[in-house]
Amino acid sequence: MSNEILPQTDLTFLPATADLTTLRQYLLDLFCRLAYKEGDFVLSSGQRSSYYINGKQVTLHPEGALAIGRILLSLLPMDTQAVAGLTLGADPIVTAVSVISAYEKRGLPALIIRKEAKGHGTKAYIEGPDLPTGAKVVVLEDVVTTGQSALKAVERLRDAGYSVDEVISLVDRQQGGAELYQSEGLKFQAVFTIEDLQQQYSQIK
């Protein structure tokens, strides 16, 4: 357990009412204090890296989830009908956005994409409310490296008859993900790049 303590609730800051610029800076600080680590790591892609980003330290943090929900909702096209992502990393993200969307009277369902089909019952790849064929869904991700995880979610959703043309990530490691999405005809945007995190981290470490 880290000795780097960040209060569970900072009574001087209200992520539910802060403006989006302030909220973005707050979320960046959370990522640098809780999720970003430097060292020698092996990523899920098999690549070695001098740093690691454990996004769940922020996406499962109460104020972090609230900030994520508000920021990502603000980035979604107004004709978005649902948000989705590949389990496990995207689970708290799509949930946060869906909950915040209810407060904003947009009411966006959350869909969770399994890595393998459920072995019983409906044997479905996609968990969540059934949507009309052609419903516009945006895929959300915590950290994009090669882009394969979100692309798998896109493929599952398209196979189910949904329309998917955009991926939004909290952090882009800038290691090929954006180029992969472009080659697949997908729009891509990230809240932060790895340069954003490293610059902020160098100021607070």
Automatic annotation (TrEMBL):
Task: Report the EC number(s), separated by commas if there are several.
Answer: 2.4.2.10
- Give cofactor(s), names only: Mg(2+)
| Pathway where it operates | Pyrimidine metabolism; UMP biosynthesis via de novo pathway; UMP from orotate: step 1/2
Keywords, in A-Z order = Glycosyltransferase, Magnesium, Pyrimidine biosynthesis, Transferase
InterPro entries (UniProt xref): OPRT, Or_phspho_trans_dom, PRTase-like, PRTase_dom
Superkingdom classification of source? Bacteria
UniProt entry tagged with the keyword Electron transport: no
Write down the chemical reaction(s) this protein catalyses. Answer: orotidine 5'-phosphate + diphosphate = orotate + 5-phospho-alpha-D-ribose 1-diphosphate
Which molecular function terms from Gene Ontology are attached? orotate phosphoribosyltransferase activity
Gene3D superfamilies, per database record = 3.40.50.2020
Q: What class of enzyme is it?
A: transferase
Key word Oxidoreductase present: no
Residue positions annotated to bind orotate are 145, 173
Q: Which residues are noted in the entry as 5-phospho-alpha-D-ribose 1-diphosphate-binding?
A: 114-115, 118, 120, 141-149
Query: Entry's HAMAP family?
Result: PyrE (MF_01208)
Q: Which family does it belong to?
A: Belongs to the purine/pyrimidine phosphoribosyltransferase family. PyrE subfamily.
Q: What does this protein do?
A: Catalyzes the transfer of a ribosyl phosphate group from 5-phosphoribose 1-diphosphate to orotate, leading to the formation of orotidine monophosphate (OMP).
**What's this protein's name?**
Orotate phosphoribosyltransferase
Species in which this protein is naturally found: Funiculus sociatus GB2-A5
Query: What gene does the UniProt entry assign to this protein?
Result: pyrE
